[in-house]
Design brief:
Blueprint: E1 2-6, H1 11-23, E2 27-32, H2 39-45, E3 52-55, H3 61-70, E4 73-78, H4 85-90, H5 92-112, E5 117-123, H6 149-167, E6 172-178, E7 180-182, E8 188-189, E9 192-193, H7 207-215, E10 221-225, E11 237-238, E12 240-242, H8 243-259, E13 263-267, E14 273-274, H9 275-286, E15 291-295, E16 304-305, H10 310-316, H11 325-337
Parallel strand pairs: 1-2, 1-4, 2-3, 4-5, 5-6, 6-13, 7-12, 10-15, 11-16
Antiparallel strand pairs: 8-9, 11-14
Helix pairs in contact: 1-8, 3-5, 5-6, 7-9, 7-11, 9-11
The structure holds nicotinamide-adenine-dinucleotide (NAD) and uridine-5'-diphosphate-glucose.
Pathway: Carbohydrate metabolism; galactose metabolism
Enzyme class: isomerase
Protein name: UDP-glucose 4-epimerase
Length: about 350
Amino acid sequence: MKILITGGAGYIGSHVLKQLLKETNNEIIVIDNLSTGNIEILDKLKTIRDFEFIKIDLKEFEEIENIFSTNNISTVLHFAASIVVYESIKNPIKYYLNNTNNTTNLIKCAAEHGVKKFIFSSTAAVYGNPINISQKGIEENLETNPINPYGMSKLMSEKIIQDTARVYKDLKYVIFRYFNVAGADIYYEKENLKPQIGQSFPEATHLIKIASECASLKRDVVNIFGTDYNTYDGTGVRDYIHVDDLADAHIKAIDYLDENPSDIFNVGYGHGYSVKEVLKTMKKVSGVNIKTVNTHRREGDPAILISNTKKLKSKMKWKPKYDNLEIICFSSYIWEKNLYI
Ligand SMILES: NC(=O)c1ccc[n+]([C@@H]2O[C@H](COP(=O)([O-])OP(=O)(O)OC[C@H]3O[C@@H](n4cnc5c(N)ncnc54)[C@H](O)[C@@H]3O)[C@@H](O)[C@H]2O)c1
Ligand SMILES: O=c1ccn([C@@H]2O[C@H](COP(=O)(O)OP(=O)(O)O[C@H]3O[C@H](CO)[C@@H](O)[C@H](O)[C@H]3O)[C@@H](O)[C@H]2O)c(=O)[nH]1
C-alpha cells in the first residue's frame, strides 16, 4: 500500500516527506508541478531512502486518475495549493482552480480508487477575522467565515472532502487547519543546528522567512504591515508553529485514522506573537539589526489568529517539541543563511 503526497517538493510537504521516509516503511509517490517546490530538496531526501517523484500538475485530471489506477494508493497527503492570501484577493480564480477544483478531482480519484485515508492541509484562514475569541483561542467548532478567496478556497475544499466521505464510507479524512507554519528542519550535526531542508521558494511572503532574509543580508528592510491593529503593540498577532511539529501531527494522523473517525484539527501552539515580537526575536537569535518600515495594513490580513489545540493534543496525543519562538526563528535564519551559497 502506497502513500501519495501532493506538493511534496514544497516547504511543508518536504518536511512531512522527510519524517515519513525516516519513520515508516511505506512506499511513497510524490507529485508536484514544481511551481514553488524545489527538486533539489527531493534529491537530498532520496539519500534517506528512495521514493517515486512524478512531475505533474494536479489539473491534468486524466493523468492524475491514471496514477491512482496504476498504483495501490491507501493514503493521500494533500499539500499542493496556492497559498498567498493577498494574491488570492487579486487573482481569486487561480485559487478556486488550483485549490478547490484540483482538490475536488483528487478526492474523486481517491474515493473511486479505494483510498482509505485522506489528510488535507487547510488553514486558520477559514476562521476569517474572529473578534470574540476567548482566552482559550480558536476552537475547531468556531464558526468559519473566511475573509479572503484563499480561505474560502480551502473551506470549500473541506466541505467537498466531508461530503464525499459521507458517501464513500471506506474513505476517512483528517483536515488540519494550520496556523502560521515557520522554521526549518531541526537537524543537528556535531551539536550545531544545520537544517537539511527549509523554505526555499525565493518569492515567499511569510514574515519569518522575510525576517530571515533580512538577517542573512539578502534584503534591506522588513515592512510592518499595519501598526494600528487592536493588539497589544498595534501589529498583527499570529500563532507560529514549527514545521517539524506540524509534520509530526501528519505522521500521527495516519495511524489515528486506523481506529478513529474522520475529524478536523487545529494545529498551532495556542499562543501568539506580534510582528514586532517576531522581529525582536530574529534580531536576538541572529545578532543582526533588522531595519523595519511601518506601512499600511496588507489587504485580507486579520488582526489576531491564535489556536486552541486541546483537541489535537488529547485525541492524537500530539506533543509539540519546538514550542519556542527563538528555536523557530533560529532554525529559519540558519537555513536561509546557507541557502544557495
Ligand atoms: N505555510 C503556511 O504557513 C501554511 C499555513 C496554512 C496552510 N498551509 C497549507 O499547507 C500546504 C503547503 O503549503 P507550503 O507552505 O508548503 O507551500 P509551498 O508553496 O511551499 O508548497 C506547495 C507545493 O505544491 C506544489 N503545487 C502547487 N500547485 C500545484 C499543482 N497544481 N500541481 C502540482 N503541484 C502543485 C508546489 O510546487 C509546491 O511544491 C498548502 O496547502 C497551504 O495552503 C500553509
Ligand atoms: O513582510 C511582512 C510579512 C508579514 N507581515 C505580517 O506578519 C503576520 C504574518 O503574516 P504571514 O507570515 O504572511 O502569514 P499570514 O498572512 O498570517 O498567512 C499564513 O498563515 C495562514 C494561517 O494563519 C496560512 O493560511 C497562510 O497560507 C500563510 O501564508 C501578519 O500580521 C502580516 O501582516 C508583515 O508585517 N510584514
